[in-house]
Prior knowledge:
This protein is an alpha/beta fold and 74 residues long. 49% of the residues lie in helices and 15% in strands.
Amino acid sequence: MTRYCVSPLRYGRYLRDSGLFGANVSIIPKLIPGEKAQKALGLVVDEDVKSVGTSGRNLEKSMPLLKQAGVTIN
């Protein structure tokens, strides 16, 4: 079982390290309250995602966290 997991994990790491991987985080206020939006963006930082696209909300409160982690906002 382990050998089946290694290849996708290595490929994911390659994508992340090469800058080819990013996340799209939709944080529409009506659907995602402020606290949950912060948690979602915190997860992006925790998982070392370096490129993020967002929609639905001003990121003013989250920008310091994202900038400190070296996240590029697209």
